[in-house]
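Suppose you are handed a protein chain with no further information: no name, no annotation, nothing but its sequence. What can you learn? This example shows the usual starting point.
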Amino acid sequence: MENYFSNLPAWVLLLFIPTFPITIYVISQIIKRGGIDAGLSQKQSKNIQYGIWGFFTIYLIYTFVLSQTGILLENSLPPKVLVFTAIPLLIILLGFMFNKPLYDKILDKIPLESLIRIHLFRFVGLFFLIGAYYKTLPAHFAIIAGFGDITTAIGAIFVSRWVIEQKSWRRKAIIIWNILGLVDIISVIISAIHTTKTSIENHTEGIVEMAKFPFIWIPAFAPAVIIFLHISVFKKLKKDASI
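A reasonable first move is to predict its three-dimensional structure. Written in structure tokens, the prediction is:
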């Protein structure tokens, strides 16, 4: 019988599973606060928050069900986990949300440091390294993905602090950090595609662990949301030259 669940120890899974619900909650809280500061009523802001919870709850359930069908475990180019999850989510975020007046209105009122601090969830990169340790992920892929995310998360701590303290160099620091964070997630996607290509040629498993539950949540959720957040930071910087 095919195993659609991760082979990592139970303690790792129990530590990992709350990561994305907590991240979604934090994002929804920041957006709710931004809505209130933008002049929306408590009820309107709450409804937006509930909408975010509802959408991502359905989405995470969808990815769980998809992981249990087994169709994502077949190595293919492009990787099916990107085709069925990450790409559709990115289209929704950029295509349907990015240019909405309500998005602009709320983004104007969200503190920049809050947008940056959200990236603390990228400490999830630690799980790539754990996967490499237990040999469920190729070491070269895990190192690129893991250390890149962890470095970006550490950078978010310092950069958000410099924004709060209004350091004179904060704008340059934000731009550098934002570019590096965006390059990191793009490099992870490229590495995933390259590793999958190599695994097809060599008849190895590659990164199929990322198509199993619960780790499917990383490629399904993180790339699209991270790209959206980085673009939002650039958009906020462009609109506010005083930062």
